[in-house]
Amino acid sequence: MATIPVNPSAVKATASIEGAYAGFTVANAAITFSALKDSTGTDLGPITFPAGVTVPLFVTSASFSGGPAIFYP
């Protein structure tokens, strides 16, 4: 089993992120992910989420444009 680093606190990101996050909330504007990898390394992008949505998806990396997102540990 691979060791995945754990992030101790929420992180606000505006373009890309790497690490181990249990989900994210789209802040004040819709965002489009060009790449969104889950815990198995599967790329779920491209996909768009509207503002105010919370997604309980384990994320290991993401690249996106639009509004900021808050990623949770």
Can you tell me about this structure?
With 73 residues, the chain is mainly β. 0% of the residues lie in helices and 52% in strands. The chain has no helices and 8 strands. It has strands at 11-13, 16-21, 23-26, 31-38, 47-49, 54-55, 59-66, 69-72. The strands form 2 sheets. It has a 4-stranded antiparallel beta sheet with strand order 1-8-3-6, with no helix packed on it. Strands 2-7-4-5 form a 4-stranded antiparallel beta sheet, with no helix packed on it. A hairpin with an 8-residue loop joins strand 4 (31-38) and strand 5 (47-49). The two termini are 20 Å apart.
List keywords for this structure.
single chain, about 70 residues, mainly beta, 4-stranded antiparallel beta sheet, globular
List the helices and strands and how they pair.
Layout: E1 11-13, E2 16-21, E3 23-26, E4 31-38, E5 47-49, E6 54-55, E7 59-66, E8 69-72
Antiparallel strand pairs: 1-8, 2-7, 3-6, 3-8, 4-5, 4-7
Give a short summary of the structure.
The protein is mainly β. 0% of the residues lie in helices and 52% in strands.
Supply Rg.
11 Å
Structural class estimated from helices and strands: mainly beta
Helix content: under 10%
Which sequence of strands runs across the widest sheet?
Answer: 1-8-3-6
Q: Distance between the terminal alpha carbons, to the nearest Å?
A: 20 Å
Range of strand content: over 45%
Number of strands: 8
Name the helix and strand elements from N-terminus to C-terminus, one letter apiece. EEEEEEEE
Main sheet: strands, sense, barrel: 4 strands, antiparallel
Q: Globular, elongated, flat, extended or rod-shaped: what is the shape?
A: globular
Instruction: Please tally the helical runs, counting DSSP H or I stretches of 4 or more residues.
Output: 0
Report low-confidence residues grouped into runs of 5 or more: none
Instruction: Summarize model confidence as the mean pLDDT.
Output: 88
